[in-house]
Amino acid sequence: MLIEIRRCFIGNNSEYGSPRIWRELKAIDIACCENRVARLMSLEGLVAVHRKKFMATTNSKHNLPVWPNILNRNFNVSTPDRAYVSDITYLWTKEGWLYLAIVLDLYSRGVVGLAMDRTIAGELTRRALIQAILRRNPGKGLICHSDRGSQYAANDYKAILAEHGFIGSMSRKGDCWDNAVAESFFHTFKVECVRGRIFATREEAKRIIFPWVEARYNRTRRHSTLGYLSPLEYERQYKLSVKNVH
């Protein structure tokens, strides 16, 4: 039992606490209870990496029109591609800052759009959104929520939403909880992917970040909100349920 616990812990980059380790063991048919897993991990000093707060990047001091908060913290949606949330963060490299813009599907919490660049200009958020559109082809009526940053309030960004029949939504001023799902993703990203490292170059950072998002976070990382399934598996089960209904 302890050997398997260590294997799961190390195999998941020391990111999993006892709830996720327990589910990993169940997935390979090892009978145990979560309390026992927690006790053994405590005795062995196996402690998941601790999540720390990070500094967000929001410039809401602009005169651009903003959307009302249509999403209104309704983070649990019943189908994919019904509501997306977006946000920006950054990390330091020895070449300077690298900025990241992401788009998450609220249904599965999966990353459907990702863009990285040396500047935080509006092109960054537009690229992430366009990638999500090309990847998922969402229908009209999709809610696209973000903070009040100037990149999201810009006319070029709004034009993309209007072209596709999407509905804009923005957090209330100074209320980070209105975009809590995106904030939570970046907490996970900073701790489990970046881990306090200073990358030598922006390209080195991109080579680490992209596979972590696509191969680790989207495909294998167990998400507590999804019943400890990965975003990919959660959507796969949804598609199976729809297929069985028809």
How much strand? Answer: 5-15%
Based on Cα principal axes, name the global outline: globular
Derived from helix and strand composition plus strand pairing, the structural class reads alpha/beta
Neighbour order of strands in the largest sheet: 3-2-1-4-5
Distance between the termini: 42 Å
pLDDT < 50 runs, ≥5 residues: 51-56
Task: Report the strand count.
Answer: 5
From the alpha-carbon coordinates, what is the Rg to the nearest angstrom? Answer: 19 Å
- The topology string of helices and strands comes to HHHEEEHEHHEHHH
Fraction in helix = 40-55%
- Residue-averaged pLDDT: 88
Biggest beta-sheet profile: 5 strands, mixed
Per DSSP, the total helix count is 9
Commentary on this structure:
The protein has helices at residues 2-11, 18-27, 34-44, 122-136, 150-153, 155-164, 180-194, 202-217, 231-245; strands at residues 83-93, 96-105, 111-117, 143-146, 167-170. With 246 residues, it is α/β, with parallel strands linked by helices. It has a five-stranded mixed sheet, with helices on both faces. A hairpin with a 2-residue loop joins strand 1 (83-93) and strand 2. It is globular and about 60 Å long.
